Known about the structure:
- Helix content is 41%, strand content 15%.
- The two termini are 28 Å apart.
- α4 runs parallel beside α5.
- Mean pLDDT is 76; it is low at 1-25 and 151-160.
- It is of the alpha/beta class.
Amino acid sequence: MNNDTITVLLAEAIDISSPAAIQNNTITVLLVEDDDIDAEAVVRAFKKHNIINNVIRVHDGIEALDALQGKNNHKIIPRPYLILLDINMPRMNGLEFLQAIRKDNELQDSIVIMLTTSESLNDKNAAKQLQAAAYMNKSNIGTGFLDAASKINQFCIITG
Length: 160
């Protein structure tokens, strides 16, 4: 999947006709990542590209569901939001999380980009079947996701 395809998928998935998207001109990023070093790398890449969106980090799929549903002392994450999702995590992995949100009427239309080190064809196919907007290797965070994010700047991404 190339950057233009990712840009189109994200632009189509973000409801820019939403009053919240227009009024706030921002997208909250939910980073679901158990590894501290990888999470910091994402934040550094955002800073490097002057992307100043609010990033909320959780450590696994269970915490992510709690954040999206406002459970277990988590404040609910308002729409519009974008989920950056690792695959290999404890308790509930990324594919299990993706399966859970696709079954939830309130969350099923969530935009999800898989960020992983896995090159497994099985993982890629499962993510595609579960309607992930993109499947990206973490080593490409600087050139892949951020190029796409900068291209959709006019669709609510705030840059400084």
